[in-house]
Amino acid sequence: MNMKKAVVGFLAAAVLLTGCLYMNVKAPFDTDLSKTVLGQKVGKASSQSVLWLAAWGDAGTAAAAKDGNITTVNHMDREVFSVLFGLYTKTTTVVYGD
Fold first, then answer.
1. pLDDT digits over 23-79, tens only?
2. What is the pTM of this model?
3. Is 43 exposed, middle or buried (0-12, 13-18, 19+ CB in 10 A)?
4. Cα 26 from Cα 33, distance rounded (Å)
5. How far is 39 from 66, CA to CA, in rounded Å?
6. How many CB atoms lie within 10 A of CB 97?
7. How many CB atoms lie within 10 A of CB 59?
8. Which residues pair with 38 in a beta bridge?
9. Distance of alpha carbon 39 from the chain centroid
10. Between 44 and 85, residue with greater pLDDT
11. 43: helix, coil or strand?
12. pLDDT over threshold 80, residue 84
């Protein structure tokens, strides 16, 4: 019986804490991916935070477009990297266009 409780407890913790120790996710902002045209240029802009107390950077669309010298944005992605429940987090906006 103790073994069964331990297994159930482990599985519950694994489900509830998924992505809490390490997370590196890339997701699109577009909803209709079958018609997405990326373009010739790519630009990135990031913001970071540490200890949930200090944050810096500009992860905005305008900053990413400026980084890639893009005047027309065709598509955007979001990248999120997080360690230890968000102890360190980096969020990046990636824009594609011409």
1. 888 888 877 767 777 788 999 999 999 988 999 999 999 999 998 899 988 889 999
2. 0.75
3. buried
4. 14
5. 15
6. 21
7. 19
8. none
9. 21
10. 44
11. strand
12. yes
